[in-house]
Amino acid sequence: MTDFTLTLADLGNTSAQNIETLFAQANGILGVRASLPIPSTESSPGSFINGFYESHEIVYGENAYGYAKNHQTMVKLFDLRTIEIAIDGESEFSLLEQDLRLEMATGILSESYRYATKSGKKIQIDLESLASHANRAVYAQKISVTALNFSGAVKIGKKARHIKPEGISEFDPRLKESSADLQISGNRYRTKNSQLDLFVKFDDFDETLSLAESQTFTFTQLYHLSRLNDFSDVTYDTLKMQQTAIFKDFWASSDIEIVGDDKLQKGIRFNLYHLFNSAGRDGHTNFAAKGLTGEGYEGHYFWDTEMYLLPFFIYTQPEIAKSLLTFRANILPQAQKRAAELEFAGALFAWRTINGEETSAYYPAGTAQLHINADIAYAFELYDNVTGDADFIAKNRKVIYEIARFWMSYGFMSARGFEIHEVTGPDEYTALVNNNFYTNKMVQNTFYYAAKLAVRFDENLDEALKWSTAANKMYFGYDEKRQLTQQDDSFLDKEPWEFDKTPTENYPLLLHYHPMKIYKHQVLKQADTILAHMLFSESKEQIARDYDFYEPLTTHDSSLSRAVYGVVASKIDRNEQAYDFFKAAATMDLDDRQGNASHGIHAANMGGSWLGLIYGFAGLQLENGQIKTSNHLPKAIKSLRFNLLIRGKMTEIFIKND
Amino acid sequence: MTDFTLTLADLGNTSAQNIETLFAQANGILGVRASLPIPSTESSPGSFINGFYESHEIVYGENAYGYAKNHQTMVKLFDLRTIEIAIDGESEFSLLEQDLRLEMATGILSESYRYATKSGKKIQIDLESLASHANRAVYAQKISVTALNFSGAVKIGKKARHIKPEGISEFDPRLKESSADLQISGNRYRTKNSQLDLFVKFDDFDETLSLAESQTFTFTQLYHLSRLNDFSDVTYDTLKMQQTAIFKDFWASSDIEIVGDDKLQKGIRFNLYHLFNSAGRDGHTNFAAKGLTGEGYEGHYFWDTEMYLLPFFIYTQPEIAKSLLTFRANILPQAQKRAAELEFAGALFAWRTINGEETSAYYPAGTAQLHINADIAYAFELYDNVTGDADFIAKNRKVIYEIARFWMSYGFMSARGFEIHEVTGPDEYTALVNNNFYTNKMVQNTFYYAAKLAVRFDENLDEALKWSTAANKMYFGYDEKRQLTQQDDSFLDKEPWEFDKTPTENYPLLLHYHPMKIYKHQVLKQADTILAHMLFSESKEQIARDYDFYEPLTTHDSSLSRAVYGVVASKIDRNEQAYDFFKAAATMDLDDRQGNASHGIHAANMGGSWLGLIYGFAGLQLENGQIKTSNHLPKAIKSLRFNLLIRGKMTEIFIKND
Questions:
Q1: I need a surface site. Which of A197, A654, B318, B652 has the fewest CB within 10 A?
Q2: What are the backbone angles phi and psi of residue A128, rounded to the nearest 5°?
Q3: Torsions phi, psi of B430, nearest 5?
Q4: A241 part of a folded domain
Q5: Looking at the Swiss-Prot or TrEMBL record, what is one Pfam family this protein matches (chains A, B) (predicted)?
Q6: Which of B341, B428, B463, B505 is catalytic?
């Protein structure tokens, strides 16, 4: 089972912070970065609780009506991993060797470090740890300390250190200060502004041992962190046993076996492992863009969940899918309030949020990405079709109606049809455009689904008629002369971007050019029209023409891009191109291709790599509750095996080359 | 000469802060709000020095490459007007009567106040004051105190009080905290961040007098404030004499005599008076949007100067015009740096600035209003044509070349012609559009002017050819079916705004609707295409069609709108409609029609009211250095008389209604 094991040899970048992210452990509630036991200056240790954020007012240089009011920032919590060691009074160490071994099959991380003092005394630290999936309040460590070449007094301290706020100096709009001043009362930590409580139970370890040469001292430490002040007694060995069992079940239903490319095999398992670890489980938390592994994007929930992550969960872990969708149902009141504030009907879900309120401070690439509302409806529909969970849909169908009402009030009927203006599509390198193809397509789908539900539940029939009419008359821009789908009303009129004059170091463009310069050019950050082609039927010829036009204009500066282009390449039988995209997607974080895995995993891309294999290589399609597959395996791949759970029934799919 | 006198009876709103603005005195360098001698809780006293600002970093909720870095905020300086009075120990007063009389003919303000103590002792304070145009460092007051109904000890203190920073609680994006912590050393006040020096000379007055009933005590106070530590000895009487002479000269060249509407007559004089008072004179300062009368828009300089104020100065006060244009020439290095930062050629002038650097914190309605660059070129050309000041143009022609270079790099040649994308036109209720008609028209004009200069000075001829070609091929959108000029590529496709469902209190829209909602509708804040029609030739039929289409869609939420619609109404012989617009423009601040005269005068509108009379009623046109006029007087106006200075020669124009 070596393919379930991750070691440092698998990493393209072994900087301290990269290791912290990639070997981070999480259980959907609690996440802990795999920082060094004795931190270096490069270390960025910390732990996170899903949905535990601090808020502060957004300051605008120039304010306007209806802007998002507060930042919400997932708090970087305790350093649970630092070990304070002194050997005969010496407390400075240099790292000689490190070895990490993540057993993805069991969810257990094993680590071994050798350190030396200035005077040459060597010590080995062996760690075994887990973020428990059986008891999600617990992070557990087994620690062994071995005196390698000396006998003497070894002082060992093991405490949870509260991370104090520190500034971020780097220019990167995707990063934000994530620490908070916590108000401490007994074992309760409360955020000052958001007034959220966190209860902890830490038993510090602090002893001085007398170790003989080669002698090993072993102890276990359990750290409890929970939103509720309610802790159960557990032991390390029990937790480890439970963890192993839970992961066995996980892989039994969710593994993908791919023969012919070991790197891709490991990459996809690594991705599925992190997806399982960072997904919220309680209906009140969702899946942060960086999971629970880092502070990028402030721990916010985006459309990534619906369009990149939920397909995997819906098809293999429907209980998790249900919990993620329940989160949206639970924040419906905030979405209704937001729509009313902006003087629209129905519900307008936040582009980025933790607590349900909009927290995007730049609306052209935030609130204006209204498509998230159609994305949510799409995910509900997919869940509906795949799981057949009638109770859930019956209970939450109001979400869909309210979204449809929003779109009816935001769009308008013109001589051309139902139009939707002043939106930003998935491609954030154009903003505030009219009739974004992806958005209009998704809204059309939303209207149809809402109308179907209305008929199914025999209600809102007058509205259903309007929704169907709007869907039937939905306007889509098409360039007859070039036979191209228009990304939006003006995209094809834009000036070409001078790719040949853009040096490599100027990517991602957003860090090197003003938005106005980017927006006025034909240049894409990520799949947009092509994403619509991944989801909906269209002639292969049309898809191919659009693919050939848009792909060369796409920088893939967003990690959400390559996997989608890969699926669509498969769809038009360009299996080897698809393979190239998959390799990039499947190993994006392992190879640190985006250059910022240190800020946390690229969760959406991880979900995207699942889409690449299942929607792409295996050509999965769902029609009337029946699945269809087709073989798009590239030459190098001998076979692909995976499971899907359709309406409660597990189906194994096995696709072989020839 | 009663028409040169302003009293409280002329004001539509006599709140303390409104009076402070409208009776404020200024001399282009120093401005003092006409606050009560004994401030009430509503008072907002203060003085300003043109261009004296404090800067602090702009905080962005979400930052991006190339955003403006620092706020620049004109500092609200000393309260120079408060008189501390105590009668037999009583220091609390209630205001019984106030009478203000501004002699615009001489630039002298006379005020009389009656106050009473709780025990009924009444005192009269008479003030005479001026912001000296002869010595722009000086604000001078003559103060008389009369014991009306008592004999006793009157303690009088007269000091300059430094205004301490205070927050602004009101939601209004057009207002910003304008006080600063000043670092004081001797008579030098230095701003902490911008490191600007201000030197002061204040001789405090502090005496206790024994006054008999009806006895009057009179003294004078001179307050010196200057960017240079260099003060000359002056007396109040000399300053008053000089002031009277200077204003006599001013009115001799700049007055407009209008017979038939006394209110309009007073309104236009009031406007010209303030224009003369707030215009920068030294080539390093410009004309703040609110002049030197209030803190609205942070004391920033906008395109208002070029398009609304400079015509008046160019035609009647060319020395002031020259100084305002010199300011642009002096900030050319900042504009070149800004263009380079955004990776464009030439010079990109800041949308709003004091020190030449961009300080707009919301680029869609800031930097994106690139038209300011064409506006600057337009004003240089007008100055060139009207004054014939060849030396000035020879010295500063680089400004025009650099602007033309910017436009060549920002726009692009397509199959349709030379296009300019991703700009915001004058109408701020649409943003980031393609081929804004006004912008393209102004850029075309810039290209032609730059090419002409190149020929005149026999240089840059290769570039001149490109500029001419781009101008000749400039793209203008036109709706053939409706025979309408397109405000931009998408404006005519937008959803109509539901004016009938918009309650009166929801204007201005920007304070009540999210930008996305506003931008996606056919609704204008101000004249846009119609402004282009004011400036350039076009068939009357076309102008009339465009006017009839755009005017009903225009909220006139901007004070820059009505005057322009007025001029264009005159141009298409709708003299009575023009008259309605002029009345609104000429008395906008006197009647407080925008509701925020308390924040300062609406300078651009004041300039606009001059345009209304001269470009509109008198139909002024300039062709090859020759002026032409035509009679567009509305019925109620009997005659109009004014002067224009063409190439150094004063011409009196007299237009009579039959």
A1: B652
A2: -135, 135
A3: -130, 150
A4: no
A5: Glyco_hydro_65N
A6: B428
